[in-house]
Give the backbone structure.
Amino acid sequence: MTLYARFAASLDGILDSLVAAGSLPAGIERRNVTVEPPRDATHGDLATNAAMVLAKPAGTNPRALAGLIAPKLGELAEVESVEIAGPGFINVRLTPEVWRQELKVILDEGARYGASHMGAGKRVNVEYVSANPTGPMHMGHCRGAVVGDALAALLEYAGYQVTREYYVNDAGSQVQTLARSAHMRYREALGETVTIPEGLYPGDYLIPVGQALAAEFGDRYVGAPESEWLALFREKTVAAMMDMIRADLALLGIHHDLFSSEAEVQRAGKVNAALDRLRAEGLVYEGVLEKPKGEAADDWEPVEMTLFRATAFGDDSDRPVKKADGSYTYFGNDLAYHAEKASRSDMLIDIWGADHSGTVKRIQAAVKALTGSAVPLDVKLVQMVRLLRGGEPVKMSKRSGSFVTLADVVREVGKDVVRFTMLTRKADAQMDFDFAKVVEASKDNPVFYVQYAHARTRSLHRRLAEQGLAPVAEPDLTLLDAEELALVKLSAQFPRIIESAAANHEPHRVAFYLFDLAAAFHSVWNRGNDDPSRRFLVVNDMETTSARLSLADSIGQIIRNGLAVMGVAAAEEMK
RNA sequence: GCGCCCGUAGCUCAGUUGGAUAGAGCACGAGCCUUCUAAGCUUGGGGUCGCAGGUUCGAAUCCUGCCGGGCGCGCCA
């Protein structure tokens, strides 16, 4: 239980006692009562809005009600002082001992400090990456991959049971194109000189696939009609692409629990089953769509096809699930896939590129229809990343097949830098990724600044050891001054940050918090520049040094815990 | 035409799911340091939270309508 939850419980008890004493009517809704650290530290350590929220239903005014609550809060052993402020806030200042104890809690709980039971073991499915299996991962996929992976770890840390899932789009026309491209490379491997036609995938990465196909099948399919090899080549090539993608993801430390195949969903009859269910409820029907309102619809012809009644769930138009020729649309398959995912989850999260924003409503409509709104679906849209080098845009040419691959970037700046940087912006805000800036060793660079703070906490141990010194077994934490204890107060907010980041599906909050914590730590550390007696390591005073070492260790622990959620390794030293 | 996202300091962005005097970095001004506690430190100025209404004890946050920017719209995936 966090410090804040503990006080919320104490407050609840006080309110109960006021009810019992007849000073507060029974049965008042307390849901909006909060216990939080005030934004302004001069207001104390905790603040509650209880008096303001409850005054009206209690038929009194906030300051009068606060006058009843405040003295009872003041009786708590951990409370140093209480004051009523502004419109009726009750500000509480805690004794220094509370923070000294919290420091010990951080060190005792270690990697579990900040972990939460908020999720109560509920099953969350996070689907992310799901890049088409037609080539290696490039930077366009990177941000969604990192955000999804960090969100999965965050939810796990917050007590959810998480499945990390990748939806393999192996049923559409793109993988047919892929198979034809691989066939060209197959012929090439058998000695033919080939030119990859416009519209096929020209990338070199298919050369080894062609060679493998040649080695396995010889020249059997060189002149054969497509019907004989297309499905086979597709399957083989997709498998090769997925191996490549898995290897790319591993460079980022990303490992999915489950890879679900679109083709398999179809083959297993799950699409028909889902559509039949909806048809029975009148939510799937044969019909004709209106001409789209946008421009470039000159070639529009009204044709009858199978539609899902998405408008019944807030979408702007009903959506095709089957084309006029009877084959499924992408959405039809995706609908069935989400039905399947929903059947084994309590909550669904999809991480999509922002260019798919137009299709969010239909899939949410589908999940509502399929689950009776029992399984919520959050579609997180991730904005594009602009690649820069020293402020200049990095040129990319898709036509020649040369794009900036994820593997190249990880090789250049490292996994940890990529991951951290991708989390330094809200997912739905666009972002610049400058190769020069992300590796810069300066305060402007949050990746560096946070790692540097951690390295400093570790350097203390190295330097102690070098000088043959050892900290005392039971440090006297009363030697910590107010500014040092303020670091503990900031550390104590970590569990709250985790819970709010998890509840809002916003892993970037962890990155911003760590930057704040690092800045506060550096600031305390820098006091030693002017006054050697305020350094963390004071050679002739092992008592004080030991207390400060505990503080530094607790900060290091929080940074490690936060970085672990982000999937970033903490640096032992800055070489 | 419609939908989604966005609009916060000169710039890049946070803002604890409605809290108190709206924050950080950069840039700018002023001091300090010339060091291995090292890749700077301290401090100051800087705001009509796009505009206008509404909801209430209280709004950057929620609602409505405008203005401005980005993305999207199909039997594509």
The CA atoms of residues 175 and 234 of chain A lie 6 Å apart. Chain A is about 50% helix and 15% strand.
